[in-house]
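Sorry to interrupt, but I need a hand with the structure work. Leave the record below and I will have a look:
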Amino acid sequence: MITIIGLVAACGGGDKKADETKKEETAKEETTAGGELSDNPDYQKGLAIASKSDCFTCHKIDEKNIGPAWREVANKYAGVDTAITYLARKIIEGGSGVWGSVPMAPHADFTQQDAEAVAKYVLLLKK
């Protein structure tokens, strides 16, 4: 129980200035690395929503952090017809077990549309 509380606090709290800097750096890296991908409206919308949340606290594009690397998620669910709906549900409800024992905090404040936009963004990171 203490572990879960600690993880929720780690993903949701912290220094706001440091969080903002991390989000800006991640967005710059993605735009540079993505080239034409950054022009995609699904990419832009999902990135904007993820940047306003705590997503970048636990996830990075190419390396595991507290949660899995988003590119790993994109590669795993590439071509799966139900991936957007499934990932959106996981974003809203949270969960554990798919990527290890560390639980993902629920994001109940996300609308279904916002969660789907973030899922589309993540899926666009496939290599």
Observations:
- Residues 2-123 form a domain with the Cytochrome Bc1 Complex; Chain D, domain 2 fold (CATH 1.10.760.10).
- Helices lie at 2-12, 16-34, 41-52, 55-58, 70-77, 83-93, 112-123.
